[in-house]
Write a structure and sequence with these properties.
Chain lengths: 206, 466
C-alpha cells in the first residue's frame, strides 16, 4: 500500500489525504489560494458562523439536519494517524482511515441513530464540540472557500465514567449553494491528534 | 491460587465467575501464565514488504520492532537498547536501515545487530571490556508465521505455530488465503476501550446469539440483504484445534453461486477454487456454510461479512483481523486491520474497504454497539456482588452435559473439529477451558539474558550470556 506523502503538504489541515484515498475519487478537488482572509472578511464571517451552527447540531445530535448541510458529492475523511520518524514523509496509516465516507454511508450512519436500537448512544452521550482557530481561504472559484479549524470534542457517557476527549484539526471545503440555501460542506478532512483513540468508538461526528 | 482452583473448575463446567472480567489477580495470572506462553499475533508480512520496513507492536507491555532485514528475513526485536534500556525505535512504522538509540547513540542494524557503540575503545577499552561483536537487540523468544501472519511467543519452547493452531488453520485459510498471494493488511485502527480483553475474543469465537439483539439497528437500516438477523441460528459454530468461529447458512446453490451470493466476483471465485482444498470448498459448496466471525486462542479474532455499501441490491464482502491487546483487567487496546486478497481487483479492494469501515473498526456500525455492551459488563464485574455470581455459559448443553442438538456429521460438515447448528456457547466454553488450562499451570522462570560482562547475582533462572 502506498504511503501518503506529507512532505509536500500545503499549510493547513487538508493535506493530500482526500486526493489519495481510494474512496475519494468522486470528491471535489478545489484547493485554497493565498493567505487566510482577514477576520473582517464577509466570507470568513459566514464560514465561522456556519461552523458554529454545525457544532450546535452535532452537540444536539440533530443529525438529519446536519446531513442536509452536506453536498451530494461530499468526501468525509478521518485518516488513521501514526507516529513516524521526523523525515519519514508520511504520518497516516497507508490505505486506512477511521471515516472515509460519501453521502450514502453517512446517511446510513445517521439512519442508524434514528432507530431505537443504536445502543451505544442510548442513553445518549453528552457532547460538546469546541471549535476554534478558524482560518478561511479563498479558492479559484468564488462559490467555494476552504476553512481550517480546530475541534475539541468532549464526550461524557453515563454518570461516573471518565469522559472521552478527541482533538482534531479539520480542513473543510464549503460550497455556496443556489438560492437561500447558504453554504454546504463538500469535503472534510479530520486530522485527529491521537494515534490510539481514547474513546470506545466513533459513534459521533467531528 | 486456592480460590483460583475453584474458579477454574467453575469455568470448565461452563459457569463463569463474573469477576474474571475485571480482577487484578486474574489479570496477573494471565500475564504470568498465559501471555508468557501462548502465540500472540503481532502483524502480517504484507505490512513490511520491503527490506528495512518495520512496524512496532506490543505483547502486553513488551514492545517489539517487527522488521524485515536486508536479507528479507522477518524478525521481532525487543525494543530496548542493550546499554541503558531506552527504546531504540519510537515510531510506529517506517523504513530504516538502522535504529539508533537517542540516549548514548548505540546503533543497531535492522536485523538487530549492534554496529555502533560510540567511544568503544576509550570508554570500554574496546572488545576487551565490551564485546560488541555478536551483540543484538533481544529477539522475541519465538517467532513463527502462517499465511504471512506473524506471531511471537514469549516461550522459547513454544510448539511450532502450525501445531499450536492445529485444525483451526483450515478455517484461517478462508480469511487469509483466497489466492496464492494471500492477503494484504491495512491499518490497524487502534483505540482503547474500558473492557476486559476476553469478552471480545469470546464474542467473535461463537456468539451468534447476540446478533439479532445487539445488531438490530444495522438490519433495520438495510445494510444487509436478509431482512432478519434471526437467520444466524441457521448457521453453525465450529471449534477446531486452537480456535473456533461462526458461520452463516447460505441459500441453496452451487459453490460458485454461493460465493457470488456473498459478493465475490468470478475472477476471485476461480482463484479460491484453485487455492482451497476439496474439504474447504465443500464447507461452502456442498454444506452451504460461510465463515463469519472467529477467534484463535487467546486474543486474535477475524470477521467476514457482506453488507451493502451502496443503494443497490449488491453486497460486498470484507475481512477484518483484530487483536484484543490487554492493557489491564478493565482495559483493552483494539487493533483492527482490514484484510483483502492481494490479487483482488482494485475496485473490489476499494469497496471491500468501504464495507469494512461501515461495519467494523473504530467507526463500524456493528462494533459500536458491541463495545458499549462490553464496557458495561466490565464495569459491573469489578465489585463484590460479581464475586457471588456465576454466569451461565452453558447454552447448547442440558443439565447432564448432553448437547441440545447433535454435532454435525462428516456428511453435513466437511471441516475439521466439532460443529453445531444454531445458538450455543460451545466455543466460548472451549476458549475459556483453554484459558483455565494455561492459568492452572505455574510459570517456569524465564531465563535471564545479560549483556556480557560479569555474572549478575541473584538470578532466579538460568543465565544466558548474550
Amino acid at each position: 500500500m502506498r504511503r501518503v506523502r506529507t512532505r509536500e503538504r500545503e499549510s493547513g489541515n487538508g493535506g493530500p489525504y482526500s486526493a489519495e484515498s481510494a474512496l475519494g475519487g468522486h470528491a471535489p478537488r478545489t484547493q485554497r489560494t493565498g493567505r487566510s482572509l482577514p477576520f473582517s472578511d464577509e466570507r470568513h464571517l459566514q464560514a465561522h458562523h456556519w461552523l458554529v451552527e454545525e457544532a450546535y447540531l452535532l452537540d444536539a445530535q440533530r443529525y438529519d439536519e446536519w446531513l442536509d448541510l452536506l453536498t451530494d458529492d461530499i468526501h468525509y475523511l478521518m485518516p488513521v494517524r501514526v507516529s513516524t520518524a521526523l523525515g519519514a514523509g508520511f504520518d497516516s496509516a497507508p490505505g486506512m482511515a477511521h471515516f472515509d465516507e460519501n453521502k450514502y454511508s453517512l446517511s446510513r450512519r445517521v439512519a442508524r441513530f434514528r432507530t431505537e436500537h443504536a445502543w451505544t448512544e442510548d442513553p445518549p452521550s453528552r457532547l460538546r464540540h469546541y471549535v476554534t482557530n478558524v482560518r478561511t481561504f479563498a479558492t479559484d472559484d468564488p462559490d467555494h472557500v476552504v476553512v481550517d479549524s480546530a475541534v475539541l470534542l468532549y464526550r461524557s457517557r453515563g454518570d461516573v465514567r471518565e469522559a472521552a476527549i478527541v482533538s482534531a484539526g479539520r480542513e473543510d471545503l464549503l460550497r455556496r449553494m443556489p438560492g437561500e440555501a447558504g453554504w454546504a460542506l463538500a469535503r472534510r478532512t479530520i486530522l485527529v491528534d491521537d494515534s490510539v483513540l481514547r474513546t470506545q468508538n466513533l459513534a459521533i461526528f467531528l | 491460587m486456592t480460590e483460583q482452583s475453584h474458579l477454574l473448575e467453575d469455568v470448565r463446567r461452563g459457569m463463569i465467575p463474573a469477576h474474571i472480567y475485571n480482577d487484578e489477580e486474574v489479570f496477573r495470572l494471565e500475564r504470568e501464565r498465559l501471555f508468557s506462553r501462548a502465540w500472540v499475533f503481532v502483524g502480517h508480512e504484507s505490512e513490511i514488504p520491503q527490506p528495512g520496513d518495520y512496524v512496532v507492536r506490543r505483547v502486553l507491555e513488551d514492545s517489539f520492532i517487527v522488521a524485515r532485514g536486508e536479507d528479507h528475513e522477518v524478525r521481532a526485536l525487543f525494543n530496548m537498547c542493550l546499554h541503558r534500556g531506552m527504546q531504540v525505535c519510537r515510531a510506529e512504522m517506517g523504513n530504516a536501515s538502522h535504529f539508533r538509540c537517542p540516549y548514548h547513540g548505540w546503533s543497531y542494524r535492522n536485523d538487530g545487530r549492534l554496529v555502533g557503540l560510540p567511544f568503544h575503545k576509550e570508554a570500554y577499552g574496546g572488545e576487551a571490556g565490551f564485546r560488541r561483536k555478536g551483540q543484538t537487540l533481544l529477539p522475541a523468544p519465538a517467532l513463527d508465521t502462517y499465511n504471512g501472519l506473524i506471531f511471537v511467543s514469549m516461550d522459547p519452547d513454544a510448539p511450532p505455530l502450525r501445531e499450536y493452531l492445529g485444525d483451526f488453520a483450515f478455517y484461517l485459510d478462508y480469511y487469509t488465503k483466497q489466492s496464492p498471494s494471500g492477503i494484504e493488511l491495512r491499518g490497524p485502527q487502534r483505540w482503547r476501550i474500558k473492557a476486559n480483553w476476553k469478552i471480545g475474543a469470546e464474542n467473535f469465537a461463537g456468539d451468534m446469539y447476540h446478533t439479532p439483539q445487539t445488531h438490530t439497528s444495522v438490519v433495520e437500516i438495510g445494510l444487509f440483504r436478509e431482512p432478519k438477523a434471526e437467520k444466524r441460528k441457521d448457521g453453525c459454530t465450529y471449534w477446531a484445534g486452537n480456535g473456533g468461529g461462526t458461520t452463516y447458512k447460505l441459500p441453496p446453490g452451487t459453490l460458485e453461486e454461493r460465493l457470488r451470493y456473498v459478493g465475490y466476483p468470478d475472477v476471485m471465485v476461480e482463484r479460491m477454487k484453485r487455492t482451497w482444498s476439496r474439504e474447504q470448498l465443500d464447507v461452502v459448496g456442498r454444506d452451504g456454510f460461510m465463515v463469519s466471525a472467529a477467534s484463535a486462542f487467546p486474543n486474535l479474532s477475524f470477521v467476514h461479512n457482506w453488507p451493502r455499501v451502496e443503494d443497490s441490491e449488491d453486497v460486498l464482502p470484507f475481512i477484518s483481523i483484530r487483536t484484543w491487546q490487554p492493557v489491564g483487567p478493565d482495559e483493552t487496546e483494539v487493533l483492527s486491520w482490514f484484510a483483502v486478497d492481494a490479487e483482488a481487483p482494485e475496485e473490489f479492494k476499494a469497496l471491500s474497504y468501504k464495507a469494512y469501515l461501515m461495519c467494523f473498526g473504530s467507526t463500524g456500525m456493528f462494533e459500536q454497539d458491541d463495545v458499549e455492551n462490553w464496557v458495561s459488563l466490565t464495569n459491573t464485574a469489578a465489585g463484590s456482588m460479581a464475586r457471588r455470581l456465576a454466569l451461565n455459559s452453558r447454552m447448547g448443553l442440558l443439565e447432564d452435559d448432553a448437547t441440545v442438538v447433535p454435532p454435525l456429521s462428516a456428511g453435513q460438515f466437511s471441516g475439521p473439529g466439532e460443529a453445531y447448528v444454531g445458538y450455543g456457547e460451545y466455543n466460548q466454553r472451549h476458549l475459556l477451558r483453554r484459558w483455565a488450562d494455561y492459568l492452572e499451570r505455574p510459570a517456569s522462570p524465564a531465563e535471564r539474558i545479560q549483556v556480557n560482562g560479569v555474572e549478575a547475582a541473584g538470578a532466579a533462572g538460568k543465565v544466558v550470556r548474550a
